[in-house]
Amino acid sequence: MTIDLATIIKAYDVRGTVPDQLSPEVARAIGAAFARVVAVPEGASRVVVGHDMRESGPGLVDAFTAGVTAAGVDVVRIGLCSTDGLYHASGALDAPGAMFTASHNPAVYNGIKLCRAGARPVGQDTGLADVRELAQRILDDASSVEPVETTDRDSTGSTSERDTLADYAAFLRGLVDLSGIRPLKVVVDAGNGMAGYTAPAVLGTAAGLTALPLDVVPLYFELDGSFPNHEANPLEPANLRDLQAAVVEHDADLGLAFDGDADRCFVVDQHGDPVSPSAVTALVGLREVAKELEAGRTPTVIHNLITSRAVPDLLQAAGATTVRTRVGHSFIKAQMAEHDAVFGGEHSAHYYFRDFFFADTGMLAALHVLAALGGQPHPLSVLAEMYSPYVASGEINSTVADAAAATARVREAYAAAYPQADVDELDGLTVAHWDGHPQWWFNLRASNTEPLLRLNVEAADEDIMIKVRDDVLSLVRTEDA
């Protein structure tokens, strides 16, 4: 049976189990559609393709390559890479790109993250829906699809290979100068993911770069898509425990944890305590804002709507314009480009840089954290406290039968109790009492894929945060009689 591609091609990327959902046949159809929908209309002569450490990656890349070259478009295969390594190649080569990864998902999964030339996003509203529709037609009946116009190009594209790791490492090093920082000991948990490949190149000398004043303690650098030590998803607290213990054991200055495709970076301080991604967003954002102001430019920073209010508070005080956006990398990237923003951050530890083609890179964020820490004498816990003045609940999931009804109950209750609160529906329901006393806000968002409501609460003090959190959860989890 032909698969319904709507089950694996969602708002941001392709994600499915191999081979029942994402098979070589499906990968070939997506490659053919991507070439026709993105590469050929843009006049791109080549597509750059990479993959992570999953065993299924090379075979799927072979199939995808066959689909692209059948449309008359060349393929440059860069082999093993992180997702931000693929974005760098797309930007440096000015070519559309495809990254085969399922990020932190279990070994049976794989997926594809697609981008236009210059690492510009391909999401639901920027071409992915068209790729899905055409790939579905190819799978259902390839003979019904019109042949691609191959004027001024060979009827079949060629395939070449290229090693871009050293260029990627040198590019990142050129954006943040670590040569003058005080010596730091840093534990890096790659989670058997792609940071085990990229960290030695960027933070060490594996790519031929000069040594930095860093003593790197490696944790799970062996590439293994079965993730034998722990899931490569640092957003889950359980997956940080080994890193936290290692930081304390080695008396390190900080720890860095990357997800499977190494585009997200999480930070823990010298005590092993997690530093919130919002605090990292503020820290890195202030560095980028200062650089913009020094160059005589007016800085803009993007943050999603469930980032701490400390982010806009601190960045606006520093002279930046802040833009609040909905959750999701394709939305952030679009806003980054529209506003020519110097930086953007998400609660999920995705960090976006204008200097990195408006794309997200966990490794560049890590370099900024190292530079900020090593450029002054205080421990990371002190720095983190400066950027974490409020109390947050973290994301709390509730399984509900009717997400819309539960959200409506919350909206009605808070409209009646707090008529002066600000309410918006940019992404789910946000109710904010930030301009009054006591200060609090919450956001309630429905999952795109599961019967879940996700709650985030922040307040000026813990008692208020707990009260708002518990009040909203009681409304969410009380079904209508």
From TrEMBL:
Keyword Metal-binding: yes
Residue ranges of every copy of the Alpha-D-phosphohexomutase alpha/beta/alpha domain listed in the record: 9-126, 167-272, 291-390
Entry cofactors: Mg(2+)
GO molecular function, one term: intramolecular phosphotransferase activity
Any single GO BP term: carbohydrate metabolic process
Keywords: Isomerase, Magnesium, Metal-binding, Phosphoprotein
Domain Alpha-D-phosphohexomutase C-terminal residues, every copy: 395-473
Family annotation (InterPro entries): A-D-PHexomutase_a/b/a-I (IPR005844), A-D-PHexomutase_a/b/a-I/II/III (IPR016055), A-D-PHexomutase_a/b/a-II (IPR005845), A-D-PHexomutase_a/b/a-III (IPR005846), A-D-PHexomutase_C (IPR005843), A-D-PHexomutase_C_sf (IPR036900), Alpha-D-phosphohexomutase_SF (IPR005841)
Highest taxon above the source species: Bacteria
Keyword Isomerase carried by entry: yes
PANTHER family: PHOSPHOMANNOMUTASE (PTHR43771:SF1)
Family named by the database record: Belongs to the phosphohexose mutase family.
NCBIfam families for this protein: PRK09542.1
Name under which the protein is recorded: Phosphomannomutase
Organism of provenance: Krasilnikoviella flava
Lineage of the species this protein comes from: Bacteria, Bacillati, Actinomycetota, Actinomycetes, Micrococcales
